[in-house]
Write a structure and sequence with these properties.
- There is one protein chain.
- By secondary structure, the chain is an alpha/beta fold.
- The chain has helices at 19-36, 52-55, 73-86, 92-117, 139-144, 163-168, 170-177, 188-201, 216-224, 230-236, 253-265; strands spanning 2-8, 40-46, 63-65, 130-134, 152-157, 182-185, 206-209, 240-244, 271-275.
């Protein structure tokens, strides 16, 4: 039986559950079937506290680690704020202040990971056979620590966000990325992009494409629980392209609109519908 550890920051970010969090829950439901068959044991390590409405979606045979106190939502948000401040021009005392807070919370998180990794019973040198660095949640930990090469570390890549930073700071990223055995990208285009990035910075590891699992049954159930207005019925009766996601700058929704405008000029008849929440 394989012992698998999945590492992820939280299922309850302050701005609400996102796409990567939902994908993880869908994966856990798939893993749950292998657990029932006795093929693996799966543990989930979350760095930050999660609300009940998010935790209840996780199958009961997936073990969630709560041995030590997770970061509160306020602590996690303050760490994000500290990192944002450190990326701007600030005074020396402010830099020392925010560096100290970010460093402390980073150390706190590292200790939480170590407490889980060092639980090997008896003579066994390591407890886990596979660690999934989901959405690159363990990257900062892997900068500070080496993990036994008998443990396969898999990096699940959710976006192309890090690619440019890999190239600009390849001396820092190359040794960290080479600690992974396998990389997973969520579409062929992302895999092609990172293959080129990895080639340029000297990372030569197995890299595969694995499309995000989608629980269509839940989508249908939620769709059937809401009244559909006459206006929406009219929209649904037309041919359309649908994008669902947060309306944040980093999602680059403008690019989608620009691409759609070009397609319209080429004669496509479908409308573009965008569903999501956010400042945009």
């Amino acid at each position: 039986m394989k012992q698998v550890l999945i590492v992820h920051p939280t299922l309850s970010p302050n701005f609400g559950r996102g796409g990567a969090d939902t994908v993880l829950v869908n994966y856990l439901k798939i893993f749950s079937e292998f657990v029932k068959q006795g093929k693996m044991k799966v543990d989930l390590l979350l760095f930050r506290e999660a609300i009940y409405d998010d935790i209840k979606d996780i199958p009961e045979n997936i073990n969630i680690h709560f041995e030590s106190r997770p970061l509160s939502r306020a602590e996690a948000e303050f760490q994000t704020y500290s990192q944002m401040k450190l990326g701007h021009q600030i005074s020396d005392w402010e830099r020392d202040y925010f560096n100290s807070w970010d460093g402390y919370i980073h150390h706190f998180t590292n200790q939480r990971i170590l407490s889980v990794l060092n639980q090997a019973p008896g003579e066994k040198k390591h407890y886990y056979d596979i660690i999934i660095n989901f959405d690159q949640a363990m990257d900062r930990f892997l900068r500070d620590y080496n993990i036994s090469d008998q443990i396969a570390i898999i990096c699940w890549i959710h976006s192309a966000y890090h690619g440019e930073d890999y190239l600009n700071r390849h001396d820092e990223w190359q040794p960290l990325l080479n600690k992974h055995q396998t990389f997973i990208s969520i579409c062929p285009e992302m895999k092609e992009y990172y293959d080129e990035v990895f080639y340029q910075i000297g990372v030569n590891k197995k890299h595969v494409t694995l499309f995000n699992p989608i629980n269509t049954q839940i989508i249908l159930e939620k769709a059937n629980t809401q009244e559909i207005s006459e206006e929406d019925k009219s929209l649904l009766n037309q041919n359309y392209i649908l994008q669902v996601g947060r309306l944040f700058d980093y999602k680059n929704n403008e690019a989608m609109i620009e691409i759609y405008a070009q397609l319209k000029q080429k004669g496509i008849q479908e409308k573009l519908y965008i569903i999501g929440n956010g400042p945009q």
